[in-house]
Amino acid sequence: MRKTDYAFWTFVALAGMAGLTTVLNVSRTYSATTPNAEIYKQLDLFGDVLERVRSDYVEKPDDSTLIDSAINGMLAGLDPHSAYLNPKNYRDMQVQTRGEFGGLGIEVTMENGVVKVVSPIDETPAAKAGLQANDLITHLDGEQIVGLTLEQAVEKMRGPVNTPITLTIVRKSAEDPLEIKIVRDVIRINAVKSRLEGDVIYAKVSTFNEQTHTNLVKQIDALRKQLGKPARGIIIDLRNNPGGLLDQAINVSDDFLDQGAIVLTKGRNLEETQRSNARAGDIAEGKRILVLINGGSASASEIVAGALQDHKRALVIGTRSFGKGSVQTIIPLGQNGALRLTTARYYTPSGRSIQAKGIMPDVIIEQELPEELKPKRPERPRGEASLRGHLKGEDAKNKKEESGSSAYVPKEPEKDTQLQYALKLMRGEIPEPTILPRDDEGKSGETPAAGTKAPAATKKQ
Amino acid sequence: MGQRSSRVRNWGLRLLMVAGVGALATTAYAQSTSPSTPPRDALTSKLELMLRSMRIARDWHVEAPTKKVLVTGAIDGLLARLDPEAEFYAPAELRRFTRVPTGATADVGLIVRRDERRRRSGSLGYRVVTSLDGSPAARAGLKSGDLITHVNGQAASDLSYLMLTQTILSGNAAQGIALTVERAPDAAPETLRLARETVPVARAAEVVGVAPGALYVRPAEMTPAVAADIEDRLSRGGDEATRGIVLDLRSVALGTADGAAAMMDVFLSDGPLVAVATRRDDAEKRPLARPGDAAQGRSLAVLVDSETVGPAEAVALGLRRANRARLVGTASAGRFEVRTLAPLGRRGEKGAIRIVTARYAPTQAPDPDTGRRAIVPDVIVEQAPAHALCRGVDLPDVQAGQPICRKRQLAEDEQLRRALALLDDAVIAARP
């Protein structure tokens, strides 16, 4: 005991040398009769740290935020995708996955402390009320926006359906500020944007929310009708799509597959292995499919790309994807929000793990970076493998892990090298590429077979 | 088999929900039976939420984490909420320091702090707070804001503060160390080799005439001995300071609360001095100045910069609040915190945490936007010409082909010249 005392006093002396005075606190032991003693015992060392902070930190800490941070730290320490969602974060996440919310229907940014309208979304209350791109919103219900963050302003504009809000708008063409009253309605986040490129259907899928599969099917159907003749093929653009719901990834893959496995998810126990199979039917009617991916394609995007690649249903074009091969389950905690916990890894039909590796395209097409974006020095690694504390991939033991690639996509389609390549290939304007052999092909024997589809409703990628 | 397995899983989820309901019920019960201590209940229910989350993570996370991993993560999360520099030390790590013998130490003269971007985004390493005058670090040109990314080839972010400062930057013998440093966000990293040197026993104060009727006072650190030295010199030669005194606290990082109080007392005849205050201390309990001002009330200008740290900042702020001095230079470091290695368990057998337990008083209130406590001087003067290699108080030079930093002369020191001009303004303003 003497020796420990000595050790602490040594610190005081040494720390003094370093210029920051250190005072030693007399060790205070908390009473064993506190009502939380039993919980503290189960929380182990954490209880000691918490009590020490509560008694000695220079300001009286807020117990609730401290423990929220502790719960989050406990999960974040496991892998980069596990987290504690407080009630607000949980609500935000639900809005994101549901893909709809009560609001006005404008895309906005912040400029000089006020909100600027990027564009009103068609068929929404904002568009009907005549809001225009570049309108500056200065007040919400008479309260000024200056001082709010964009997030706070957006929060105020959202609200229950059928409730009104009055916006004060400064518009270049109008001398005086305009007051516009708008009644909130259901706004759907459009996860799919599609168009015809000649006789080729191009569909950009930006996220996998609850609307994605339905949107995709509807839009491809509409474009096919518009074309009036069979399409030459479909380009599915999954670049910079960070993922989303697992069941949506399965449904979207299923849209183009007639049979066979789509994805396998393996929990930590063998009996938690789930395999989902495709049902008959292909909305592309057997026409050629090209899938675009890049370093920003993660998770659910990688499931779709991997499934269509393994079944040789699509040719995957672009650069190596992000490499997030894990499944998160949302576990609601009543009024306390929810836990987002990594509960499984997923594998492509041939048994490949994507974790910290990514999907390698069949044809690698790099995006040409404009001069001003070229890195001045070698860039830091990207992708899942560069995340601190990521789950190790299957064969990570002996080699350095790498995943991800550039996530740059030019705004103008004509400058978009990857898209242009896909279009030319589709139209037969360039010869068929030689497909790169994959080093892990034919390893499918190791995956256990399971029969049912994943009950994926509670899962989120 | 698949059919069965999904049933198993569903059962698991159902159990989880039942467990959830059970926990809620317990909370409600606890709340209804002990209404006398409401704050305890809020804490208890939060702790129960934590315990429940821990069990869910233990039972469901794909990597089957141990309790130890979960508890360590929780401690990290809690400390990160306090500030980026708060750290936990396991008993094994603490024992490594007990082996360091006291006595003669060698040092590179570098004061560092952990970079603010930490954990999730990945810590970058340690920032230089300042390098001590004349030390190997100062000669190598290390200055406030430089980022140390690697130490002897090891990622600096993986080193705990005490490990870095007590066993590498200083130690019991002269030794060479290699630091990889980024001097600007986009600059290529360079590797500097420094050798630890034995710290000089006594640090002095410089008191010289810099202009007719003006005295320049530069303490090396805020200690009672240095303050006594300055007081002695002023009481003997203070009459020559007809214009006033410039107190140079630029790059002054060392000292104690006692020393800072003594330094203020040199120039004040009444009012509160500097103290270290925990949240339980009464702010009014600061020591009071003794009667008598060694400078006889003559004009006082205090030079501060981004490397004015802790005790020196408290002195500068205290003299300004007492209307005794005006501050010239650039914003100070804003580091009023006193960090303590607080033991866990009765005598630290469970380890320790290094957290802020007190602050120097007076303390600058945090800026509402940035949260920083930097003191903004009355007259802001950037030092010119700025040079990437040298601190504000230094100028670049070349000796024997090696670039070094040397001390500025008066003619080159724009901040000092402005401080002298300020003294004259004050004298003119005081005339009837």
Which terms summarize this structure?
heterodimer; A: 461 residues; alpha+beta; Pdz3 Domain; 2-enoyl-CoA Hydratase, Chain A, domain 1; 3 domains; six-stranded antiparallel β-sheet; 11 helices; disordered N terminus; disordered C terminus; B: 432 residues; 2 domains; 33% helix
Model description:
The complex is a heterodimer of chains A (461) and B (432). Chain A is globular. With 461 residues, chain A is of the alpha+beta class. Chain A has helices at residues 2-17, 37-43, 45-56, 63-76, 87-98, 125-128, 150-157, 212-227, 246-256, 300-310, 417-427, and strands at 83-85, 100-103, 106-111, 114-120, 136-140, 143-144, 164-170, 178-183, 185-188, 192-197, 200-205, 233-237, 261-266, 274-277, 288-293, 314-318, 326-332, 338-347, 363-364, 459-460. In chain A, helix 10 (300-310) links the parallel strand 15 and strand 16. Chain A folds into three domains: 37-76; 102-188, Pdz3 Domain, CATH 2.30.42; 192-426, 2-enoyl-CoA Hydratase, Chain A, domain 1 (Alpha-Beta Complex), CATH 3.90.226. In chain A, helix 2 crosses helix 3 (45-56). Chain A has eleven helices and 20 strands. In chain A, the strands form four sheets. In chain A, strands 1, 13, 14, 17, 18 and 20 form a six-stranded antiparallel β-sheet that branches. In chain A, strands 3, 4, 5, 6, 7 and 8 form a six-stranded antiparallel β-sheet that branches. The longest helix of chain A is centred in the first third of the chain and has 16 residues, at 2-17. Chain B folds into two domains: 102-198, PDZ domain (Pdz3 Domain), CATH 2.30.42; 205-340 and 353-428, 2-enoyl-CoA Hydratase, Chain A, domain 1 (Alpha-Beta Complex), CATH 3.90.226. Helix content of chain B is 33%, strand content 23%. Chain B has ten helices and 21 strands. In chain B, the strands form five sheets. In chain B, strands 3, 4, 5, 6, 8 and 9 form a six-stranded antiparallel β-sheet that branches. In chain B, strands 11-12-13-15-16-19 form a six-stranded mixed β-sheet, with helices on both faces. In chain B, strands 1, 14, 17 and 18 form a four-stranded antiparallel β-sheet that branches. In chain B, helix 7 (224-237) links the parallel strand 12 and strand 13. The termini of chain B are far apart. Mean pLDDT of chain B is 81; it is low at 1-38. Classes of the chains: A alpha+beta (461), B alpha+beta (432). Chains A and B meet through helix 1, helix 2, helix 3, helix 4 and strand 17 of A and helix 1, helix 2, helix 3, helix 4 and helix 6 of B.
